[in-house]
Amino acid sequence: MVIQLGTGELMIFILLKEGTDSSQGIPQLVSNISACQVIAEAVRTTLGPRGMDKLIVDGRGKATISNDGATILKLLDVVHPAAKTLVDIAKSQDAEVGDGTTSVTLLAAEFLKQVKPYVEEGLHPQIIIRAFRTATQLVWAVLINLILPLCPREQRKLLEKCAMTALSSKLISQQKAFFAKMVVDAVMMLDDLLQLKMIGIKKVQGGALEDSQLVAGVAFKKTFSYAGFEMQPKKYHNPKIALLNVELELKAEKDNAEIRVHTVEDYQAIVDAEWNILYDKLEKIHHSGAKVVLSKLPIGDVATQYFADRDMFCAGRVPEEDLKRTMMACGGSIQTSVNALSADVLGRCQVFEETQIGGERYNFFTGCPKAKTCTFILRGGAEQFMEETERSLHDAIMIVRRAIKNDSVVAGGGAIEMELSKYLRDYSRTIPGKQQLLIGAYAKALEIIPRQLCDNAGFDATNILNKLRARHAQGGTWYGVDINNEDIADNFEAFVWEPAMVRINALTAASEAACLIVSVDETIKNPRSTVDAPPAAGRGRGRGRPH
User: Fold this and answer.
1) pLDDT by residue (tens digit) across 120-142?
2) 530 catalytic, yes or no?
3) Which CATH number characterizes residue 328's domain?
4) Which of 68, 94, 322, 482 is catalytic?
5) Candidate list 94, 99, 322, 395, residue with the active-site label
6) Where the protein is mainly located, per its record (predicted)?
7) What pTM value is reported for the model?
8) For residue 510, which of 124, 115, 169 has the smallest C-alpha distance?
9) Of 69, 109, 106, nearest to 91 (Cα)?
10) Is 430 annotated as catalytic?
11) Are 237 and 328 in a shared domain?
12) Which of the following is catalytic: 46, 64, 71, 101?
């Protein structure tokens, strides 16, 4: 840093470590805005029902096909510090409401694009931030008045419409009616907390998408089994279920253990003691009345045969997630010992059954009394396709949960953005000064959603946006892009609905991100610390004998 003193003398101070990269001022701000626009370009074409998919290959060669904004941005591994902000808001949108991840990224980038000329002309960032915060508060107030509450009598039908809107932009849009019904069924099975972890999703390769099914209970893949497993019954009615974290097999001696025996009888006593410990555990499980035994740890061949002889079913090495879901659904608790297997720690269900699905065998627990849970079993060809189906269902489930918790909806397809844009444009004409220009820029940025929907569908965006502006000026509040007929339509009448929370969250997060990026005027990058390693000591002439 160079400082000029009053005497005209120049003083040089070194404040930062050598190699530190520092950039500031308007060029730095413009650079950050440009980086955010590059991020938006990566997901721009994935928006809407006619959006394209992205094929992303990671460092290990694993391919992912997706058009979910949050998934794409996570896989891109962005390193630019300002651009990471857009990745973060996409992740937060995904966690909070599940859908609208591409919209929030596009809106934030478009807000920045519209204010870029003002930044280059030297307008102070704080004026921009103040205008954006004012615009966001106005938008919030208008949205609260526009949202429409769901009718409790027709709640199920309305939730299906919301799920179909969420699925219409996904890879499985052709089967959206089939999956929307399943998603609403799944969420309706849950208790009042609507816990996402109570919905399991399992993927089985083979078959068609329509072969997918929803199980009203817990289902998980058959685990590794030993000889004797096939002799066990595969179906029970009203069984008691023991959930264990106990190893039921003969344990190998520890590596560092040493036992010295002098007679064969002593050795035989040690072997018998091991067997007796195992049989003692098995007898306690049998006497507890449990018919189905699940353990997180291995169940060996001796135990498998023992249970088969007594008409009991067992499964070892059950994944912890599935074991916990079974516990939450069937009741009982996971035991780390078999000494206290009383009736209150055993789970129950109406029917337990092992069923063949494609090339896999699955264990089904249905009619679970304790907590309400369900499991999707997805079928399909390619592994990437099934993974994208799982992500699509996750988005739809989140939307339905959000619609139940916040029972209000708005019309999608760019309708709500056009109405808010019209309101802000009219408001900006009533105020003087720079705020007028900036709120007008905010209003113009909102049009990116209908414009991009048109571009992705191959429509003439300018023509359709002109029609939309004219219709909204005449009072057509819910008019948006009609993808099927290359025109505009009342999207509320066309049942293109989404929870109001999706739009509120997207606009708030995008505006906050834009304000955050505009408020940064300097970036300082510290160099990587390179600590010089001490020179290796070696023996040579003149060095004494090492101590």
Assistant:
1) 998 999 999 999 999 999 999 99
2) no
3) 3.50.7.10
4) 68
5) 395
6) cytoplasm
7) 0.80
8) 115
9) 69
10) no
11) yes
12) 101
